[in-house]
Amino acid sequence: MELFVVLVTCLSFLIFLFLWNQRHAKGKLPPGPTPFPVVGNIFQINTKNVSKSISKLAEDYGPVFTLYFGMKPTVVLHGYEAVRQVLIDQSEEFSARGSLPAADNINQGLGIVFSNGEKWKQTRRFSLMVLRNMGMGKRTIEHRIQEEALCLVEALKKPMVGSPCDPTFLLSYAPCNVICSIVFRNRFEYSDENFLTLAKYFDENAKILSTPWIELYNAFPSLLHYLPGSHNTLFKNMTEQRKFILEKIKEHQESLDLNNPQDFIDYFLIKMEKEKHNKQSEFTMDNLITTIWDVLTAGIETTSLTLRYGLLLLLKHPEVTAKVQEEINHVVGRNRSPCMEDRSRMPYTDAVIHEIQRFIDLVPNNLPHAAAQDIKFREYLIPKGTTILTSLTSVLHDGKEFPNPEQFDPGHFLDKSGNFKKSDYFMAFSAGKRVCVGEGLARMELFLLLVSILQKFTLKPLVDPKNIDTAPLLKGVGSIPHFYEVCFIPV
């Protein structure tokens, strides 16, 4: 009986807090569907495809509205104009990172992706400087990607000719090694057990983060944290990844030359040494571990998922694949490695890569932003700290900019003369202050790795292309393609 009284008291208090928050927010936040006490609008949202629910709600409430995930209000921006206003025109005011409890539980506000304030500014600025010093955007990193592409091609040749192959992990090894060479100084053999385990964790994390369960966990973290569920596997994986990173840091500490940094870890350790007497320094061991985790996650899983989804689309559309290979043969040939200078002479291939990224809509609702201060936005007043959700789906699948947006069509990025056509609506890497740090590296990898594969292999599906399902298997934080097998036939 006492437990029942406690539960009723707690529930009554939560409802009181919710109603109080609603009353005080009225007239400030944009309107939206009426939320239920405690649970908010969670029953009005399809947790299997939040972005689709948001598009439907936008039809009734317009491009700016408020949703409650639990008791937490989230201002939703839908459509190019609203998203651009937040990410670009008022990027400073909306530059804060909103809460994502599934990640916050481990990262604790450290690193690049989920930090805020001075910690975010200093860590991001420093990381960009180091990545550029390590060759990002330069010939140095281009050569590394070309070397890794050759290793990938050899790995794809190893299975018996014509035999089915699951490309999931093979396509993650190349981007993983590229970023590992920047962070850890060395690449790994594709048979290395530690390397294989690291890749497995990143793949598993991406799948878990895109499940409906994690959508619920992010809405009710206090309630669900101690229950059984896939969030526990996610936290375990992240903990194991951090142990691996810490071991690598300890190896670097033993061989560190303060006058001759060799990789990302060296640069950060030297910065830590320089600021060791500064008690307010943002350059700590915990921040180093989380920053490396951020760099690895951004540098591995997004690129490998795009490659995997991209090959699935090429299997579905063999006529597109044939045109890309024709352009490769004409510009690159069969013998030399492709290089970034080739891209300007390969408009169709460039358009295909952009269309892959547009179509798959890899991060449908972006990572959450937050108001960095009290902001007057249009006719509303958005309080500091309010979570902001920017629907990238609504921009990448805008019907006016991209006719028939649900169809895969490289023509979306080609003009009438067949030249590549840029679009301001292409926000696959987000935009503004929080744009993806590794955008330049990812663009280079996607071009060089995809062209290298299509230069050396014919892709053969195991089923009729008409029966290939290109809709995402999971669509949460990310878009995850269905499992498939493919035969890589050497040309």
TrEMBL record:
In its UniProt record, which GO terms are filed under biological process?
epoxygenase P450 pathway; xenobiotic catabolic process
Q: Where does heme bind?
A: 436
Q: Name one Pfam family in it.
A: p450
The Enzyme Commission number assigned here is: 1.14.14.-
Top-level lineage group:
Eukaryota
**Compartment(s) of residence:** Endoplasmic reticulum membrane; Microsome membrane
A single Gene Ontology molecular function, please? Answer: oxidoreductase activity, acting on paired donors, with incorporation or reduction of molecular oxygen, reduced flavin or flavoprotein as one donor, and incorporation of one atom of oxygen
Q: Where is the signal peptide?
A: 1-25
What cofactor is needed? Answer: heme
The alphabetized UniProt keywords are: Endoplasmic reticulum, Heme, Iron, Membrane, Metal-binding, Microsome, Monooxygenase, Oxidoreductase, Signal
Write down the top EC class of this protein. Answer: oxidoreductase
Chief subcellular location: endoplasmic reticulum
Q: How does it sit in the membrane?
A: Peripheral membrane protein
What do the Gene Ontology cellular component annotations say?
Answer: cytoplasm; endoplasmic reticulum membrane
Q: Which family does it belong to?
A: Belongs to the cytochrome P450 family.
Q: What does this protein do?
A: Cytochromes P450 are a group of heme-thiolate monooxygenases. In liver microsomes, this enzyme is involved in an NADPH-dependent electron transport pathway. It oxidizes a variety of structurally unrelated compounds, including steroids, fatty acids, and xenobiotics.
The identity of this protein, by name, is Cytochrome P450
